[in-house]
């Protein structure tokens, strides 16, 4: 794996976790939004990741045969497959004076759980930091290699 591939993989992780943090922040910001442009309460969203690798099996077969594997087959980072909407119903609270109340006086609130969102935010932050550390390690190795060549 080349130096540039290491940076590309780390950068893809950074971009993916940044998007995940943006989606989590949007969920938290809309935790009390009872009316959206589409109608009804806000529905929480989540990010689905996929591997950027085409397939690991040809790389494994090449390694077993003692051949060099195609670097494109090994790993090319993480990609965002899609952003999905969580369709679980939100809590219903009796508040007949709310303009979004139904005929029985209940208001449907978003299905956003702040504890879940905060846990996801900590996880995304830690993953972001891990990707940043891998980029820093690759950079330090490249600098050490250049330093060896000058001595």
What does this structure look like?
With 151 residues, the chain is an alpha+beta fold. It has one domain. Helices cover 50% and strands 14% of the residues. Helix 1 runs antiparallel to helix 4 (114-149). The longest helix has 36 residues, at 114-149. The radius of gyration is 23 Å and the shape is elongated.
Summarize the structure.
This protein is α+β, with helices and mostly antiparallel strands and 151 residues long.
Number of helices: 4
By DSSP, the count of extended strands is 4
Structural class: alpha+beta
Oligomer: single chain
H/E element sequence: HEHHEEEH
Radius of gyration: 23 Å
Q: Give the termini distance in whole angstroms.
A: 25 Å
Instruction: Estimate percent helicity.
Output: 40-55%
- Low-confidence segments, given as residue ranges, are none
Spatial order of strands in the largest sheet:
1-2
Q: Kindly report the average pLDDT value.
A: 87
**In what range is the share of β-strand residues?**
5-15%
Domain unit count? 1
Write the layout of secondary structure elements.
Elements (H helix, E strand, L loop, with lengths): L2 H27 L15 E7 L5 H8 L6 H4 L3 E8 L6 E3 L11 E3 L5 H36 L2
Antiparallel strand pairs: 1-2, 3-4
């Amino acid at each position: 794996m080349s130096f540039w591939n290491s940076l590309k993989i780390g950068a893809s992780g950074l971009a993916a976790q940044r998007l995940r943090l943006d989606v989590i922040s949007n969920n938290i910001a809309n935790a009390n939004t009872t009316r959206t442009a589409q109608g009804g309460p806000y529905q929480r969203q989540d990010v689905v990741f996929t591997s950027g690798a085409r397939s690991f099996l040809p790389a494994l077969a090449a390694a077993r045969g003692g051949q060099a594997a195609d670097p494109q087959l090994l790993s090319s980072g993480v990609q965002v497959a899609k952003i999905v909407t969580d369709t679980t119903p939100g809590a219903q609270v009796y508040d007949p004076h709310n303009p979004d109340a139904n005929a029985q006086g209940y208001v449907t609130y978003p299905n956003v759980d702040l504890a879940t969102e905060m846990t996801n935010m900590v996880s995304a932050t830690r993953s972001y930091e891990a990707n940043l550390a891998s980029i820093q390690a690759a950079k330090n190795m490249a600098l050490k290699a250049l330093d060896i060549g000058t001595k």
